[in-house]
Amino acid sequence: MRTPRPAQPGTQRLGDATTPSPVRRGRGATANPTGRFEPTRQVVFDDGWEASPECPPLRTEVMLEQARTLITRNRSPDISFDRSINPYRGCEHGCVYCFARPNHAYVGLSPGLDFETKLFQKANAAALLERELSARGYAPATIALGTATDPYQPIERSHRLTRAVLEVLARFRHPVGIVTKSNLVTRDIDLLSDMARDDLVKVAISVTTLDPGLARRMEPRAPHPEKRLEAIERLSAAGIPVMVIVAPIIPSLNDHEIETILARTRDLGAVEASHVLLRLPLELDSLVNDWFAEHYPGRQQHVMSLVRAARNGKAYDAAFGTRMTGIGAYAELIDQRMRLARRRLGYPETRRRLRTDLFRVPSDQLSLF
After folding, report:
1. Are 24 and 110 in contact (CB under 8 A)?
2. Domain count, the chain
């Protein structure tokens, strides 16, 4: 029986997975731990025989998912929507902090590198949406588009599922709130500006940091911070209401940027602002700790102590009402800074509500149902 050697320089160990740096170049996670539902667990280590310095970087794979339904319902009392759509599973942006990573375990894959390299596209998304919106008794309410994975991640350029979903929503005059960190959203300004004239859409853009170096390490395949600022400006100029989300706020890493981000985005036309404190459910706790050990080892203990102080002493507390913002002195300080900055910069106190009274089933759909 071989005894695993310590991880070599340029690799990171996360429980039972080690991934060489050259292989994961341009990726966010530092490891690929076995999914929590798998009956067997793989242990990867360097025994001195099979290691190759010429290992190619991981390639993105896109697989087909034949979804049976598209609209996901929730009854969470602390979020403003009860239904959402995610055209893709997994996300190539590779944000190391993404709270959706643990969902990849449900399809037998790792929340680590698999989440950002083994993606699924719901090719029948538009057809499913038409069927569900046309169902007898359907009552319209704002659909959140992109709550788990980014609807404008790089593969959207070729697959165009988000565009197809928006085209259906536009024909049905159905309200939608979009969440993204990609400037690709500006591709669809033609659709969005038309919907915005009837108060049927708003776009939330996540700005985690304005530091390009930090952004590259945290979210390696997401657009440059300046590209996101440009997207806010272009959407706002087209009459599309934009919310900026400072998320996630990571103690001692990007929390000093809150006021600067809110000021820059307000100048560019953002009309709403919110924040989310770092969330570390399930495998994400180990993944983020492993990332800190590689990139910011000197801050790891301090950051995690503040996170736990805001989460009832745990890595994550999923309690409704506090799971997004946390509790305690640090969380209250962040809340106060956000409130004061919004007031000083003139952000409206109330959120824009989208209309539902314009919803209609197009006449060409009636013959199908």
Report:
1. no
2. 1
